[in-house]
Design a protein that fits this description.
The protein contains four helices and no strands. The protein has 133 residues and is mainly α.
Length: 133
């Protein structure tokens, strides 16, 4: 009983350690802030800075959050497939996890492109920043 508790604790520790290794470098990139205004020695923030924050947040989400989570998801799917032990049901679950993960990554990466192309199609490309010039 105690042996199983120690193994479970070690699994949790290694999972947390892996998450820190994956996410810590990405958070340190953004330690300076997403916008360069409002801090000591800098100009005050304006509406243009607020609107400029939107692409920074999207980039942060896509490259610093979604990508590491997708890698973890694919690793779990592969682990499930490898440890299926010949069970077709567990292997199919892992395969479905891979498919759903790939579709999710494509949706996340494609969403920004779809919105940009739609705005270009209707002639609204760059309309947000035009009134500030």
């Amino acid at each position: 009983m105690i042996h199983k508790a120690k193994i479970k604790l070690l699994k949790v520790f290694f999972c947390l350690f892996f998450l820190v290794l994956v996410f810590a470098p990405t958070f340190s990139i953004y330690a300076a802030g997403l916008v360069n205004c409002g801090n000591e020695g800098q100009q005050p923030c304006t509406l243009a800075d607020l609107l400029g924050l939107i692409p920074s947040v999207i980039d942060f989400f896509i490259y610093s959050i979604a990508t590491p989570l997708a890698l973890i998801w694919f690793a779990l799917a592969g682990y499930k497939m490898i440890t299926s032990g010949g069970s077709p049901q567990k292997y199919a679950e892992g395969k479905n996890m891979l498919i759903y993960g790939a579709v999710g990554v494509l949706l996340i990466l494609g969403a920004y492109m779809i919105v940009e192309e739609f705005l270009t199609l209707i002639g609204a490309k760059g309309w947000v920043f035009e009134f500030m010039k």
